[in-house]
Write a structure and sequence with these properties.
Structural class: alpha+beta
Radius of gyration: 18 Å
Pfam family, one: DUF7053
CATH architecture: 2-Layer Sandwich
Region (Disordered): 122-152
Domain DUF7053: 4-123, 175-229
Organism: Zalerion maritima
Number of strands: 8
CATH topology: Alpha-D-Glucose-1,6-Bisphosphate, Chain A, domain 4
Strand content: 25-35%
Number of helices: 5
Helix content: 25-40%
Distance between the termini: 39 Å
CATH superfamily: START domain
Protein name: DUF7053 domain-containing protein
Length: 245
């Protein structure tokens, strides 16, 4: 049966006390995006499959460096009785205002997700609302393999400069701090976590996959925000061995 696609857009408001730049830093670390998923038990850096990245217009010149992971899930076959361990690759690319993630799950299910921290009125510098889930590759964009570990790849980041994987350019950092200052000085603009998700799989599987998409991603986004709020209140940062309740 032919492969089909399903898309989903979600917006979760940030609570008043959650700093947009703190949430952005959290998203840029990638760990919360995996840890918040119910079935994920582990994720480790992995070697990038460069050809699959270069052939996917989801990863563009407007992003920062790319990082690959191997994700481990325990998927319930018979709920409460029998679960099966599966492993699959996931590729992350940071943006100035968020991150992109592509996961190649079992049974030929491929999921593209984008998480962006934006002003609710779409007025933030460098973070207008929008999605790149259906765009074509940037014309003339160069592609280079840069130094770092096997999972760290650069994609010809024109205009960005030398940006470390876990770091951000001075422009990105300054913008985040400036927006936090504006939030204080101007009485506070509202911010959202915007999520754009597209899944592609065999048409026979799509009813089962799409049925759980919205609930799973809404829960993921809310858990990431909740963790930032907890950290800002002085809570302990969770690791993979200390899952959400």
């Amino acid at each position: 049966m032919a492969r089909t696609k399903h898309t989903l857009s979600l917006t979760i408001p940030l609570p008043r006390g959650v700093s947009p730049s703190s949430l952005l830093t959290h998203v840029h670390s990638h760990e919360p995006l995996f840890r918040a998923q119910a079935f994920v038990t582990d994720f480790q850096p992995a070697k990038c499959d460069l050809p699959s990245i270069l052939g996917d217009p989801f990863f563009l010149d407007d992003g920062l460096k790319i990082k690959s992971f191997e994700v481990t899930e325990m998927v319930p076959v018979v709920p409460g009785v029998w679960s099966k361990e599966v492993r699959f690759p996931a590729v992350c690319q940071n943006l100035e205002d968020g991150a992109r993630v592509r996961a190649d799950a079992p049974a030929g299910v491929r999921v593209w997700s984008q998480y962006r921290v934006v002003r609710r009125r779409g007025r933030g510098r460098g973070n207008p609302r929008g999605s790149n889930l259906n765009v074509r590759p940037v014309a003339g964009g160069s592609t280079t393999r840069e130094g770092g570990n096997d999972g760290d790849v650069g994609l010809g980041m024109s205009g960005i400069g030398e940006v470390g994987y876990y770091g951000t350019s001075s422009t990105v950092g300054t913008t985040a701090r400036e927006e936090d200052a504006l939030e204080e000085d101007e009485g506070g603009d509202a911010y959202d976590l915007d999520m754009e998700v597209r899944v592609e799989c065999n048409g026979l599987l799509m009813p089962f996959v799409s049925r759980s998409m919205e609930g799973a991603h809404r829960e993921l986004g809310q858990k990431v925000i909740d963790e930032v709020e907890e950290i800002q209140r002085g809570g302990v940062h969770r690791g993979m061995g200390d899952r959400y309740a």
